[in-house]
Specification:
This protein has 272 residues and is mostly helical. It has one domain (40-270): MetI-like fold (Orthogonal Bundle). 78% of the residues lie in helices and 0% in strands. α1 (3-39) packs across α10 and α5 packs across α7 (179-208).
Length: 272
């Protein structure tokens, strides 16, 4: 094959790959665009409103969602405020123990810590209700979220530790640094990118977790994704679309930050 033919083939391949990438991107973005358009539209195409009189304009839609589901928004905000630090406080030390202080059975235990990721939400919810049914419902919700997010921290931080030069910490200790000094000046700074990305990842997963949250919800403790489901089944599409936009407002910046600062530590952290 001539050089010109090879260049032409490569250019054609890039063109096809670019076109496919745009198609996938449009396929993924289209529902968000439809939701955004619905929230700012008063067209009767969406059918009769189930909310009674129509809220006045788009701002009225958002105000209606706040007035009805404000408690659920607060519950989701409180959940992520609890789940993010606890997932890091449990998952990061566990990952460090598995990778830097291995013990008998540590590999098996690390593998077992990933099993909640494959557990159906209904199984997790029933297990929590069966074992901790007398606990406050918010505690059960936080437990369900932690079950899904701690494994992500263990994997992300654990795999980041694989690229951690193993002789740095012993060298620091040989020079007289204590355990806290080693952690403060070496371990934590090296792992900081993975810890930040893990926190953002836990935030997005906890904020959007639906299956277990829906089954564990109560009238006084309902996360916003569970309320979002209700808006799509009981409200008109413009109201549900406004609720969707409110749901996405904190998620999109977190995903952008993950993409911006994650880089190689993030890819290492999530690789199988």
């Amino acid at each position: 094959m001539s050089v010109a033919a090879k260049i032409s083939t490569a250019a054609s391949g890039r063109l096809v790959a670019t076109a496919l990438s745009w198609c996938v991107a449009l396929f993924l973005i289209a529902p968000i665009v439809v939701a955004a358009a619905g929230a700012f539209s008063s067209s009767e195409f969406y059918g009769h409103r189930s909310e009674g009189s129509a809220p006045p304009g788009s701002l009225g839609l958002f105000w209606y969602v706040f007035s009805v589901w404000g408690r659920s928004l607060g519950t989701s905000a409180a959940l992520v405020a609890v789940v993010v630090p606890f997932a890091l406080l449990i998952g990061a030390p566990a990952a460090y123990a598995f990778r830097r202080r291995p013990f008998s059975g540590s590999k098996l235990l690390e593998a077992a810590s990933m099993t909640p990721l494959s557990m159906p939400g209904i199984a997790l919810a029933v297990s929590l209700l069966a074992t901790l049914g007398g606990a406050p419902r918010f505690t059960l919700l936080a437990g369900g979220h932690l079950a899904y997010t701690i494994p992500l921290v263990i994997r992300a931080v654990g795999n980041a530790l694989e690229s951690f030069e193993p002789d740095i910490e012993p060298a620091a200790r040989s020079l007289g640094a204590g355990p806290w000094q080693v952690a403060r000046w070496i371990t934590i700074p090296v792992l900081l990118p993975s810890l930040v990305v893990s926190a953002l990842l836990v935030f997005t997963v906890s904020w959007g977790e639906f299956n277990a949250s829906f089954l564990l919800a109560s009238p006084l403790a309902q996360s916003f994704p569970a309320a979002l489901y209700v808006t799509y089944t009981a409200n008109s599409f413009p109201v549900a679309a406004a609720a969707t936009i409110l749901f996405l407002l904190p998620v999109v910046p977190a995903l952008v930050l993950i993409q911006a600062i994650g880089g190689e530590p993030f890819r290492r952290g999530l690789q199988a």
